């Protein structure tokens, strides 16, 4: 269970919803998410998305996850406040149907 000890402490002190799990992420993952969110980066091409996924370094069975659905699933399990939002976007006159943007979920 992700964050089991943290959940125990939260229940003990009754501060549910006041502690973000972002602090418990791998520092590389947390840094990549915070950076992409604060700079409002948008990842358009598959190459950009793959590079970002590799930066996140989220793995299942030793393999880096590159699908936004799987990344979001892991971020949800880890109870973080960040998610990947796929959306339509344009860049240099070209339309991208599934550009990625990092969003911050409310507590």
Outline the structure in words.
This protein has 107 residues and is an alpha+beta fold. The chain is built from 4 helices and 5 strands, in the order ααβαββαββ. Strands 1-5-4 form a 3-stranded antiparallel beta sheet. It has a two-stranded antiparallel ribbon with strand order 2-3. A hairpin with a 2-residue loop joins strand 4 (82-91) and strand 5. The two termini are 20 Å apart.
Protein topology:
Elements: H1 4-13, H2 27-38, E1 42-43, H3 46-56, E2 59-60, E3 63-64, H4 68-77, E4 82-91, E5 94-104
Antiparallel strand pairs: 1-5, 2-3, 4-5
Estimate what percentage of residues fall within beta strands: 25-35%
Rg to the nearest angstrom? 15 Å
User: Secondary-structure element sequence?
Assistant: HHEHEEHEE
Major β-sheet strand ordering: 1-5-4
Residue share in helix: 40-55%
Task: Output the keywords.
alpha+beta; three-stranded antiparallel beta sheet; two-stranded antiparallel sheet; 5 strands; 40% helix
Q: In a nutshell, what does this entry contain?
A:
This protein is α+β, with helices and mostly antiparallel strands and 107 residues long. It has helices at residues 4-13, 27-38, 46-56, 68-77; strands at residues 42-43, 59-60, 63-64, 82-91, 94-104. The longest helix has 12 residues, at 27-38.
């Amino acid at each position: 269970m992700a964050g089991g000890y943290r959940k125990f402490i939260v229940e003990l002190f009754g501060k549910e919803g006041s502690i973000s799990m972002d602090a418990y992420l791998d520092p590389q993952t947390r840094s990549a998410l915070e950076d992409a969110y604060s700079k409002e980066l948008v990842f358009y091409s598959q190459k950009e998305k793959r590079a970002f996924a590799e930066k996140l370094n989220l793995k299942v069975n030793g393999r880096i996850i590159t699908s936004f659905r799987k990344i979001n699933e892991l971020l949800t399990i880890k109870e973080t406040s960040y998610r990947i939002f796929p959306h339509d976007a344009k860049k240099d006159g070209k339309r991208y149907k599934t550009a990625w943007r990092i969003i911050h979920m409310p507590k």
